[in-house]
Each structure stands twice: as C-alpha cells, then as structure tokens.
Please model this.
Amino acid sequence: MTTAPAAAAEHAAGDSYLTHGKGIASWLFSLDHKRIGIMYLALIVFSLFLGGVFAMVVRFHLWDPSGGLVSNDAYNKMFTLHGAVMIFLFVIPGIPSALGNFVVPLMVGAKDVAFPRVNLLSFWLFVAGAVLFIATLVVGGLDTGWTLYPPYSLESSRGLGILLALTGVFLAGFSSILTGVNFIATIHKMRAPGQGWFDLPLFLWALYATGIIQIFATPVLGITVALGFLERVFHLGIFMPEYGGDPVLFQHFFWFYSHPAVYIMILPAMGIVSEVVAVFSRKPIFGYKFIAMSSIAIALIGFFVWGHHMFVSGQSKWANIIFSFLTLLVAIPSAIKTFNWLATLYKGHIILKTPMLFVLSFFAIFGVGGLTGLFLGTLATDIPLHDTYFVVAHFHFVMVGAVMIAFLAGLFYWWPKMTGRMYDERLGTASAILIFLGFNVTFIPQFLAGTMGMPRRYATYAEQFVGLNRVSTVGAVLLAAGLGVALWAFVASLRHGARAPANPWGAATLEWATSSPPPHDNFAVAPRGVPPYDYTGLTHASDEAGWIPVRPEGAR
Amino acid sequence: MSHLAQTGTAGAPEDRFLAHHFPDMTAQSQTSKLGIWLFLGSEVLFFSGLFVAYGVYRANHYALFHYAHHFLDWRMGALNTVVLVGSSLSAAWSVRCAQLGDRRGLRITLLLTLLLAGMFLVVKYFEYSHKLHNGIAWGAACHPSEEILSTLPASVRALPVPKDLGTFFSIYYLMTGLHGIHVLVGMGLYVWLIRRATRGDFGPGYFVPVDSVALYWHLVDMIWIFLFPLLYLI
Amino acid sequence: MTEHASARPAHEPGTHVMSPGILVATAASLMVLTAITVTSSRIDLGPWNVVVALAIACTKATIVALFFMHLKYENRFLMVILIAAALFAALFVSFVVFDTVQYQPEIRAADQAVRKGS
Ligand code: HEM
Ligand SMILES: [Cu+2]
Model:
C-alpha cells in the first residue's frame, strides 16, 4: 500500500487503521482483520495477474491450429499452472479471504474477527502455499492439469514439481479452513447488540454457508493431497494401479472437495451481488429469507453431487444416475436467488455505478453459466460434452464471468471504505463494459467449439476450429484490457482520488456507519444492529459528505 | 447484556487473558468453544478420507483384510484402548479441576494425561518396530518374514501370502500414523498446558485452554475407538 | 473506548462441572464396551461382525461426546456440528464404497476378457 491515502485520511479523521502502527512489520504481523484483508488482497490480485499471464500464453498459442507459440510440453504446463493458480490462489480465497476479512467484522459491528491470531496464521499458510506454487515453476513446472489426476500425476518419473504443488494445495487448504472457522464463529458470537440472524447482511449469510463448506469439505482436499504425496514417495498402492491402487478413488476424493469448492467460489460472489443489487436499486432486497436460506441449501446440497465430474471415469452406472439426479436439484436454490435479484431490480430506482454494472453483467453471465451446468449435469448430454471446450466455457462462465466479476463489483463497492478514496466513475464504467464484452467474446466461441467436439487441454486442434479460436483470443485481449483499466482506476484513486465519505452509496449495512477508512478499532462507538436493507433513514447530502441519516445523530 | 455502558468495574485476575475485541470473559470462552468444535468437525472429515480408503479396499479385498489382521496383535490394541480411555478420563478430570480451582489436582491430571499419551506411543512404537523388523511395511515393500508367518494361527498359516498384502498395511500405517501424529500434537499441547498450569494461569474464571485441549484429546480417543476394531479385530 | 468486564457469576453459563461419578462411569462403560467388542469379534458372524463392531464403536463415540466432551450440557449447536461432520463422513464413505463394489467387478471382468483374448 502507498501511504498517500493514509496521509490524507489522517487529516480527515485522525487515526485510521492505515496509520495505526508504522513500518512493514506492523503490516506483516498485524492482527487487525483489515490489514490482513488488504494483504490478502495484494496477494490475490498478484495471483490473478500471474494466472492471467499464463492464460494469455495459452490463448496466443491457440491462435494457430498447430500451436504457434510454445512447445507442446510447455503448453501443458501453461494451462496447468493457469488453472491451479487461478483456482487455488485466486477464485477460492479471493472473495472470502480478501474482501470478507475486511468486511465481516465491520458488518457485525465487532472490533475484529473471533480469532485474530488464527487469522494471521491462515494468511501465512496461504503465503506459504503460494510460494510453493511459485517454486513449482522454478523446478520445471507441472503438466497434470489443475485436477492432478493419477496415474499420470503420480508417475514415479516425476520430479519435485508435483510434491511442491501438493504441499502448496495442502497449506492453502488449511488456510481456507481456518478462515471458515473464523467467519462462522464471528457471525455466531460477535454480532452487534440487537442484530438478530435475520438482520445480517446477505453477504454474511453467504460467507456463513461458505464457511460450512470450507470446514467440512476442505479437510478432504487436505487428506487427498497428503495421500497423493505419500503415494508418490512411498508407493502405498492407494491411487496408483501400478501398486494395486485405484485411480478412480482419487477422483472421488478430489471431487468430494472440489465440487463443494465451486460453491466456496460462487456463494460469496452471490453475497456481494445481494448487497450491491439492493443498494443500487434503492430498494430492500426482495425475498431476504429465501436468499439467505438458499445459500445454506446450496452449501448442503453441494455435498451430494460430486460424482457429476466422473460420469465417464468408470464410475458405476447407478452412481451416475443418482449423481445426475442430485445435480439437477442444486439448480433450484441458485434459480431462487436469481429470481429474487431480478425482483429486486423490478421498479427499483436503478443507479448505474460501477459495482452495479458488474452485477448486471453477473446476472447475464451467471444465467448462462448455471444453465449450461444443467446440460452437463444431465447424464446423457454430458457424455459427448465431457472434456470438450463446452466444459471449459461452462466453468469460465461461472468462475470468471460470475465470480471474478462479482469480486470486482465488491472491490469497487468497498474500495472507498478500504482506502478512504473514491475512484473515477468513468474509468470504472469503462472497465465494466470492456470486461463484459471481452468476456463474452472470449468464451461464447468456446461453447460453440465444444459442441462441435473440440477437446480441451490439447496444444493443437483441427483446422475447422481456427475461426472460433481466433475470436476467443481477441476476446481475451479485450478482457485483459478491461482488467488493465480497472487496475488503472484503482491506482489513480490511490494517487489522487477524492476523499471518500463514510457512506458514499447510501447503504444501510454497518460497515458504512464508520468512517472511511475505519479506525483501528473499527467503530468510535460500538453500533447496534439495524435492518440491513432499509434505506428510508438515509438521505444524500452531497458528493463530498455522502449519505447521512435523516434524523440528527444520536436520536433514536 | 449491553457492553456499551460498562465502565470501571474492577476486573477479576483472569481478565488479563481477555482479548480486546470481546466484551467479557463469557463471550470470549463461548466463542473459543465454538471455534474448537468447528475445528474438530473439520478433523472428522480429515480422517474420513482414510476411512473411505479402508472401506474401498476392504470391500474389494475382503479375504486379504481378513488374512492381514492376524498380523496385528489385538492385545496391544486393547491395551492401547485402555490407555487412551484412561487418558481421556484424566483429561476430563483436569477440566473439572480447573473449573473448581483445584490447582494441584489440575497439575496431576494434566501430567497423567501426558504420561498415558506417551505410553500409548511407546506401545505403538513396539508394534511398528516389530512389524518393520519382520518385513511388514507398506505397499509393494511388504514381505513378511518366515518368523512372523510362523506366529500366525495354523489355519491362516496354511494359506498362501496374498499378493496385495501391502495394501492393507499401507492403510494400517496411514490410519494409525495420522492418529499417532495427532497424539504427538496432543502431547505438545499438554506440555504447554502443564507449564501454564504451574504458572497458575487457570482457575474457575479462565479454563478455556484446558477445556479446548481436552476436547481435542477426546476426539483423538474417539478416532481410536473406530480404528481399534476395524484394524485389529475384524 | 475502554471496556471492562462485568462482575460474573461464579460459574460461567454453559459450563457444567462434571461430577466424579459420571466421569468414572463414563470411563467404566467405555472399558466394558471395549471388552464386548473384543469378545464379539471372536465369534464368527460373517458380514455382521463389521456391523456389530461399528455399532459398538458408534455407541462408545456417543458416550465420549456426551459426557467426556460434555455435549449433553452444552448449547445444542455444538452437537449439530459433530453430527453434521459424522453425517458428511458417513456420506463420503458409504457412497464411495457403494460405487466401488459395483465398478470393480466390471473392471475385473474386462481385465479377464483382455487376458483371455491375448
Ligand atoms: C448451477 C449449477 C451448476 C451445475 C449443475 C454444474 C454442473 C457441472 C458439471 C456436470 C460439470 C462436469 C462437466 C464435465 O466434466 O463433463 C461441471 C464442471 C465444472 N464446473 Fe459446474 N456446475 C454448476 C455451477 C458451477 C459453478 C457455480 C462453478 C464455479 C464457480 C462451477 C465450476 C465448474 C468447474 C471448475 C468445472 C470443471 C472442472 C474440470 O473438469 O476441470 N460450476 N459443472
Ligand atoms: Cu461440480
């Protein structure tokens, strides 16, 4: 972080969390959830950048059917590292660890998360995991795909790379578990006086549901990679057929975690959407309880569907049928949410600020991403679509088009709170539009290529797909440009953004009841719970002063 | 109970352990307890993977599992079960002592728990070294020696040594090994508790660490409750 | 803002002191159940041996949870956590085993066919 906003904030509001304690150590070993959140944010944005570089190599390589840019081996490493970095270091931790850490205690009016030391530990575990991933690159990369399937991934000829990657996943996983424990304990026990369960902002319901998955599914990832590690070193015969093991068992292990993990990604994104859509429609969220409960339902049902990734693995036919059926059930709570959001827009006074633009993109893209999930969940249609670009397009629709875009919505939304600075709305708008366009140009062609049978994870492809691939690459450039503009908006804001008022958007949740940026202890006066989506008590004073309570301070 | 208006009530001595972000000790200890339980829930799923592996290989190689368990001495397993139950009792008792402010009792029960945990590992060490000494390792490295084969019951000895015998022992070492690591960690925690108890940190107003570690310890015991019959008996 | 703790009741709410009688009885019943497991395993019940062993183990685990871990006297939510964890674990084990017993014979049959063919 630069000190520019810090200095500005100091003039404005006295001590803020940014100025409380100086020097690098006061950041690295800070127990303050806000600082930990900011450090996560820095690391996660870096991961997005790194994963993005790999993605661009992949896209440019596929400009040519015979693979123009790198060797086939290098291509395999590029898509593997792209996937692994994006999934384990960006989409999974992105919203909960970076934005969630910053916002959760503020939203319940607390001074910190329940276990600040555990929070710091979790951050350092994540750093260690990330370092091991980078180390994988140094020792020659990894070419197994992010799914790390044996027997290929655990062959005895493999070097250090796979071991480093497995350890990295293990550490990042434990970081995620600890974050989940912290959030659930915070939400349970540290709510402001008068803040009942149904006074919680929906972002917290979403993180609560996420926490359930982090706590109950992530340990299975831990044991999976631990077994993989031991199998590779000691040849236990658990996963490797060579030694009497069963590779399908690995897939069960992996997806028992990794399907719920897609809800670790999407639930927090849905939480952000619920906040933003209400604030920028100036209307209470429609169907609060349905949105809250559908988060929990998604988290729970998400545990029962992992086998839909294994329809062609050799899994038995009864398992296939049951998993296919259960998969279709998950779509119900997701649809409930979507309809409630749309109903919130209906007759709302819609304000098209940057966060809202991203959220509107989310609606369009998540709709397609979720519905194509149903094609894949249906046993009969998945058999031809499996391992084609259709799957690639599906999960990019949900992970990039929905999760990354919601992450950006949240980042723009909470940016003034985090830094005390406003960003330039024109830059924000430009980035939102560019990203929406770039995204669709990149991934719609992949749906088409997939239905025509283009397989995923190959360095070369048949001549007939050349047009679609080139359009996709052009789209990727647009998408990258859009992200560049977003970065520009943030940097410009840090350097000379206008000072942010406490409540620039007129939101009613508690994080906007304290100054921007908040003081070290979050609130000058510990707040009481308020209805999170009741905007009648707020009025827009001016751009400088933001929104203020209608009644004078102190009146009840 | 509002924490807005509290000022100046003289705090109890334990308040030096009250973190700044909690209004009072009750809130803090209840939060810790919730945190510990969430973590234990996570632990259950961590172990569950090994039970899956056990289930899959047992279902597919029933004869092998039946054959292999004869290499395990159920008396050792039973002994360790008793040792662990004893240590759990002592751990639960230590919580009681802390709650009642019985500092001497607390130190004794903590120490006893630690000793029994150590004893568990000593027994485990003898089992492991006996097996490894006789060529019973994991996976492909499992080649039982004539000596150990001759100790099997006659009806079992008549059978040929199954090809995949090592698979059972991979699972055996994984399950008992992960459990053993948890025992080691538990011993570390008890050492820490003993030091703090000797310093006089714990009493009726502050016993969260004693309780939390005991909960962890009971979970370790609980896992063993499943491991013992699955590996040694059936 | 400075905060101080309020005067607290002698025992914190939700913390129950376990009586020596219950603690000893808990340990004793665990020992007895251990003895029963060992004995029952020496009788050949075929596939029921596993069932019996697991049933006894679950009983023992429940006893540990209720008394040693004093869940009986706690906020119900803590029990929910443990039960949820146990159910998820059971789901995992049972579904994978259910699947494996079906596909393994297919694989073995295919294996055999290949071997015969060559
Ligand atoms: C709305 C309900 C959803 C359904 C019914 C669904 C269904 C599926 C199915 C059946 C597959 C397997 C396709 C195959 O490999 O043949 C799949 C793949 C995938 N989905 Fe979804 N999905 C849904 C939402 C999501 C969300 C929200 C995310 C992430 C945020 C996600 C991420 C993924 C990923 C990463 C893969 C591919 C994994 C791989 O093989 O590398 N999905 N989805
Ligand atoms: Cu899935």
In short: The domain at 4-549 of chain A is CATH 1.20.210.10 (Cytochrome C Oxidase; Chain A).
